[in-house]
């Protein structure tokens, strides 16, 4: 079975920490985009260690990629 192209997840960002990932998640959800956060650190979900820096990847569905990148771009400081 071949996945539909619109079902494909696309990585749009890597967060420095959980706070940044949650800010991005909230902003995307407010725009009607469902984000998926993938934690690359295997020990964090077990409560063994804090989240490693830059170990949280943010994904969205392919059709939402352009709009999601725009939303995250609006959150970054200018200059």
Brief sketch in words of this structure:
This protein is of the alpha+beta class.
Helix fraction bin? 25-40%
Compute the separation of the termini in Å.
47 Å
Radius of gyration in whole Å, from Cα? 14 Å
Largest sheet: 3 strands, antiparallel
The run of helices and strands is EHEEH
Mean pLDDT: 83
The outline comes out as globular
Largest sheet: spatial strand order:
1-3-2
Number of separate helices: 2
Q: How many strand units?
A: 3
Q: Which regions have little confidence, pLDDT < 50, spanning 5+ residues?
A: none
For the record, the count of structural domains works out to: 1
Summarize this structure as a short list of keywords or feature phrases.
DUF2007; 2 helices; 30% helix; 3-stranded antiparallel β-sheet; DUF2007 domain-containing protein; alpha+beta
């Amino acid at each position: 079975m071949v996945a539909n192209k619109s079902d494909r997840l696309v990585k749009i960002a890597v967060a420095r920490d959980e706070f940044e990932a949650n800010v991005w998640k909230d902003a995307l959800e407010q725009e009607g985009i469902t984000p998926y956060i993938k934690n690359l650190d295997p020990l964090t979900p077990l409560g063994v260690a804090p989240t490693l820096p830059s170990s949280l990847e943010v994904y969205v569905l392919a059709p939402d990629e352009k709009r999601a990148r725009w939303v995250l771009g609006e959150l970054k400081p200018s200059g």
